[in-house]
């Protein structure tokens, strides 16, 4: 019915799948660029920097992180007047 017509139309457009493109790229000689050489190092150092900054902020700056009032807030005595 309609399926062979659609299949023929799609095959005539020569749509390449992602797998075909990756296979073609993997066969070519690829010289390492900046991102291949230093990408993982920069990602790891950026992650470590963010973790250190947040740990410093959370522990040393003195921000009060909305602690629970349980045990600190005591009710006042009831006044009968």
Automatic annotation (TrEMBL):
The keyword Cytoplasm does not apply. Pfam families: COX7B. SUPFAM superfamilies: Mitochondrial cytochrome c oxidase subunit VIIb. One of its GO terms (biological process) is mitochondrial electron transport, cytochrome c to oxygen. Gene3D superfamilies: Cytochrome C Oxidase, chain K. It is found in: Mitochondrion inner membrane. GO terms for cellular component: mitochondrial inner membrane; respiratory chain complex IV. The keyword Ribosomal protein does not apply. Pathway: Energy metabolism; oxidative phosphorylation. InterPro entries: Cyt_c_oxidase_suVIIB, Cyt_c_oxidase_suVIIB_dom_sf. The chain crosses the membrane at residues 41-63. It is a single-pass membrane protein. Signal peptide: none annotated. It comes from the Eukaryota. Keywords: Membrane, Mitochondrion, Mitochondrion inner membrane, Transit peptide, Transmembrane, Transmembrane helix. Belongs to the cytochrome c oxidase VIIb family. This is Cytochrome c oxidase subunit 7B2, mitochondrial-like.
